[in-house]
Fold:
Amino acid sequence: MASKKIRRRDLIQQVVQERGGVSVGALAEMLGVSTQTIRRDLDILCDSEGLRRAHGRIELAEDRLNTPFEQRAGTNIVGKRAIADIAASRIPDGATLFISIGSTVLSVARALHRRKELTVITNNLSAAMALSEEVSNRIIVPGGEIRLPDRDFVGEEVVDFFSHYRAEYAIFGTAGIDREGGLLEFHQSEVRATEQMRRNATHSVLVIDRSKFGRLAPAVGCHLSDIDTVICDRPPAADYAELIEGLRDQFVFAEEASQQ
Structure:
């Protein structure tokens, strides 16, 4: 099988695992191919990869439907907690911050529970709810449809929403990081939302665990060198050593820092 076809099918699996389900049309737009090509891919994937068709969508099969967001939030708990603690320690009371979607970012929001008088601008409903427990905080969210089961807002309306605010900090994750250090997402609207936050913040903070290095996604965003601070649980594989060394002053490895 051609490597391009293999990579496209791997990406389809990753998108469905990440989101729980996605339409054929959205996949075709994401991957830059026809809906007929996607349907041919699905003929193969639905036979062997734990996926199923449902009314013009592709979803995880019943035996694998275990709320994908909760699956992600429940992986690498120690690493995500270390990342969250380091990130939260850098945010003072009274700060204004953007918070993006994602399970690692949600861990940071939960770690901010002792902060007071924050102004939080976010499309992550779970993060908004976690931070709303402190009544001195101000929480600002966009309107529109909530994506389930992730409990977040996505789309071009979110890009416009972030364009109307400025913040001291932008805290965000990413779906993957390529060999050159490019940040990858599953859709261009997610790239644009992250970029809007980054540009409108004084200090940008990327929170990731090492599994994101080498993880594929079709939409390319900014480069690691564009980020002010990158907080990761542990150093990635040796393939990325040269990349990390060139950006060493921007990186904080949370599990190492917590042991010092």
The chain has a mean pLDDT of 87.
